Backbone:
Protein backbone atom coordinates (compact mmCIF):
# COMPACT_ATOMS: atom_id res chain seq x y z
CA UNK A 1 0.00 0.00 0.00
CA UNK A 2 1.25 3.46 -0.90
CA UNK A 3 0.43 6.32 1.45
CA UNK A 4 -0.42 8.94 -1.15
CA UNK A 5 -2.94 11.03 0.77
CA UNK A 6 -5.44 13.38 -0.79
CA UNK A 7 -4.57 13.97 -4.42
CA UNK A 8 -6.66 15.68 -7.05
CA UNK A 9 -9.10 13.40 -8.85
CA UNK A 10 -11.53 14.48 -11.55
CA UNK A 11 -13.83 13.57 -14.38
CA UNK A 12 -15.42 15.88 -16.96
CA UNK A 13 -17.60 17.74 -14.43
CA UNK A 14 -16.40 16.88 -10.94
CA UNK A 15 -13.08 17.85 -9.37
CA UNK A 16 -12.01 16.43 -6.01
CA UNK A 17 -9.20 18.27 -4.25
CA UNK A 18 -7.86 19.23 -0.86
CA UNK A 19 -9.84 21.78 1.12
CA UNK A 20 -8.60 25.36 1.50
CA UNK A 21 -9.72 27.88 4.11
CA UNK A 22 -11.19 29.98 1.29
CA UNK A 23 -13.75 27.17 0.78
CA UNK A 24 -15.57 28.08 3.99
CA UNK A 25 -18.15 30.37 2.36
CA UNK A 26 -19.09 27.81 -0.31
CA UNK A 27 -19.31 25.09 2.30
CA UNK A 28 -21.48 27.14 4.62
CA UNK A 29 -23.76 28.43 1.86
CA UNK A 30 -24.10 25.15 -0.02
CA UNK A 31 -24.44 22.49 2.66
CA UNK A 32 -22.98 23.03 6.13
CA UNK A 33 -25.88 25.20 7.33
CA UNK A 34 -28.58 22.95 5.83
CA UNK A 35 -30.55 20.79 8.27
CA UNK A 36 -31.69 18.50 5.43
CA UNK A 37 -28.10 17.74 4.44
CA UNK A 38 -27.08 16.94 8.03
CA UNK A 39 -30.35 15.17 8.90
CA UNK A 40 -28.81 11.68 9.01
CA UNK A 41 -25.27 12.71 9.89
CA UNK A 42 -23.38 13.09 13.16
CA UNK A 43 -23.06 16.88 12.99
CA UNK A 44 -25.64 19.61 13.39
CA UNK A 45 -26.08 22.35 10.80
CA UNK A 46 -23.51 25.08 11.31
CA UNK A 47 -25.02 28.13 12.98
CA UNK A 48 -22.52 30.50 11.39
CA UNK A 49 -19.52 30.53 9.11
CA UNK A 50 -17.10 30.52 12.05
CA UNK A 51 -18.14 26.92 12.81
CA UNK A 52 -17.35 26.00 9.21
CA UNK A 53 -13.98 27.78 9.34
CA UNK A 54 -13.05 25.94 12.54
CA UNK A 55 -13.93 22.59 10.93
CA UNK A 56 -11.83 23.48 7.89
CA UNK A 57 -8.84 24.54 9.99
CA UNK A 58 -8.93 21.13 11.65
CA UNK A 59 -9.17 19.23 8.38
CA UNK A 60 -6.42 21.28 6.73
CA UNK A 61 -4.06 20.86 9.68
CA UNK A 62 -4.50 17.08 9.53
CA UNK A 63 -3.57 16.63 5.86
CA UNK A 64 -0.71 14.16 5.52
CA UNK A 65 0.07 11.11 3.41
CA UNK A 66 -2.52 8.96 5.22
CA UNK A 67 -5.35 11.52 5.12
CA UNK A 68 -8.01 11.18 2.44
CA UNK A 69 -10.42 14.16 2.63
CA UNK A 70 -11.71 15.82 -0.53
CA UNK A 71 -13.65 18.94 -1.39
CA UNK A 72 -16.20 18.07 -4.06
CA UNK A 73 -16.19 20.89 -6.60
CA UNK A 74 -18.37 21.52 -9.62
CA UNK A 75 -17.82 24.63 -11.71
CA UNK A 76 -15.19 25.78 -9.21
CA UNK A 77 -17.65 25.80 -6.26
CA UNK A 78 -17.40 23.47 -3.26
CA UNK A 79 -20.66 21.50 -3.15
CA UNK A 80 -19.79 18.71 -0.72
CA UNK A 81 -17.13 16.64 0.96
CA UNK A 82 -16.04 13.02 0.75
CA UNK A 83 -13.23 10.91 2.05
CA UNK A 84 -12.11 8.25 4.44
CA UNK A 85 -13.30 8.97 7.96
CA UNK A 86 -10.93 6.31 9.25
CA UNK A 87 -7.96 4.43 7.83
CA UNK A 88 -6.37 1.19 9.05
CA UNK A 89 -2.96 0.92 7.36
CA UNK A 90 -2.25 -2.55 8.77
CA UNK A 91 -5.55 -3.98 7.52
CA UNK A 92 -5.31 -1.93 4.30
CA UNK A 93 -8.87 -0.67 4.66
CA UNK A 94 -10.76 2.56 5.09
CA UNK A 95 -14.24 3.78 5.98
CA UNK A 96 -15.94 6.11 3.50
CA UNK A 97 -18.03 9.14 4.39
CA UNK A 98 -19.65 11.83 2.26
CA UNK A 99 -22.20 14.64 2.01
CA UNK A 100 -23.50 16.81 -0.82
CA UNK A 101 -25.56 19.95 -1.25
CA UNK A 102 -29.26 19.34 -2.05
CA UNK A 103 -28.88 21.07 -5.41
CA UNK A 104 -27.08 17.98 -6.72
CA UNK A 105 -29.13 15.25 -5.04
CA UNK A 106 -30.60 12.56 -7.32
CA UNK A 107 -28.37 13.51 -10.24
CA UNK A 108 -25.74 10.78 -9.94
CA UNK A 109 -23.07 13.16 -8.65
CA UNK A 110 -22.31 11.32 -5.40
CA UNK A 111 -22.32 7.99 -7.21
CA UNK A 112 -19.62 9.35 -9.51
CA UNK A 113 -17.68 10.91 -6.61
CA UNK A 114 -17.68 7.64 -4.68
CA UNK A 115 -16.63 5.79 -7.82
CA UNK A 116 -13.66 8.13 -8.32
CA UNK A 117 -12.59 7.66 -4.70
CA UNK A 118 -12.97 3.87 -4.76
CA UNK A 119 -10.92 3.69 -7.96
CA UNK A 120 -8.19 5.92 -6.49
CA UNK A 121 -8.08 4.03 -3.19
CA UNK A 122 -7.88 0.60 -4.85
CA UNK A 123 -5.79 1.30 -7.94
CA UNK A 124 -3.49 4.11 -6.84
CA UNK A 125 -3.14 3.73 -3.06
CA UNK A 126 -3.60 -0.03 -2.78
CA UNK A 127 -6.39 -0.40 -0.24
CA UNK A 128 -7.84 -3.92 -0.14
CA UNK A 129 -11.21 -3.09 1.45
CA UNK A 130 -13.45 -0.05 1.80
CA UNK A 131 -16.46 0.14 4.09
CA UNK A 132 -19.30 2.58 4.64
CA UNK A 133 -22.36 2.89 6.84
CA UNK A 134 -25.53 4.91 6.55
CA UNK A 135 -28.45 5.73 8.83
CA UNK A 136 -31.12 3.10 8.04
CA UNK A 137 -33.60 5.82 7.04
CA UNK A 138 -31.24 7.41 4.51
CA UNK A 139 -32.11 5.09 1.61
CA UNK A 140 -30.50 7.33 -1.02
CA UNK A 141 -27.10 6.91 0.59
CA UNK A 142 -27.57 3.16 0.32
CA UNK A 143 -28.38 3.52 -3.38
CA UNK A 144 -25.07 5.33 -3.91
CA UNK A 145 -23.24 2.40 -2.31
CA UNK A 146 -25.13 -0.20 -4.35
CA UNK A 147 -24.47 1.68 -7.61
CA UNK A 148 -20.76 1.46 -6.76
CA UNK A 149 -21.02 -2.32 -6.36
CA UNK A 150 -20.67 -2.24 -2.58
CA UNK A 151 -22.05 -5.29 -0.78
CA UNK A 152 -24.51 -5.22 2.09
CA UNK A 153 -22.88 -6.58 5.22
CA UNK A 154 -25.25 -6.11 8.15
CA UNK A 155 -27.50 -3.84 10.16
CA UNK A 156 -25.62 -2.58 13.19
CA UNK A 157 -27.98 -1.71 16.01
CA UNK A 158 -27.65 1.50 18.03
CA UNK A 159 -23.99 2.03 17.15
CA UNK A 160 -23.72 5.62 15.93
CA UNK A 161 -24.95 8.84 17.48
CA UNK A 162 -26.88 11.09 15.15
CA UNK A 163 -26.78 14.87 15.42
CA UNK A 164 -29.44 14.82 18.15
CA UNK A 165 -27.35 12.53 20.36
CA UNK A 166 -29.56 9.46 19.79
CA UNK A 167 -27.95 6.13 19.01
CA UNK A 168 -29.25 4.92 15.65
CA UNK A 169 -29.13 1.78 13.54
CA UNK A 170 -26.94 1.82 10.45
CA UNK A 171 -26.61 -0.39 7.40
CA UNK A 172 -23.06 -1.51 6.77
CA UNK A 173 -21.64 -2.01 3.28
CA UNK A 174 -18.21 -2.99 1.93
CA UNK A 175 -16.29 -3.49 -1.27
CA UNK A 176 -13.06 -5.43 -1.71
CA UNK A 177 -10.46 -5.06 -4.40
CA UNK A 178 -10.73 -7.88 -6.88
Residues:
Amino acid sequence: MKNLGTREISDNEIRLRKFKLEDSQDMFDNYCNDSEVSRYLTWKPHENIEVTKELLRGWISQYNDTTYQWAITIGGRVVGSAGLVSVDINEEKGVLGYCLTKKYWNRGIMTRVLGLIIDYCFNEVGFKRLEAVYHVDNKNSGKVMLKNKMNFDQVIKKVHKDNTGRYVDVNSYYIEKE
Notes: Helices lie at 24-32, 49-61, 109-125, 139-147. Residues 9-129 form a domain with the Aminopeptidase fold (CATH 3.40.630.30).
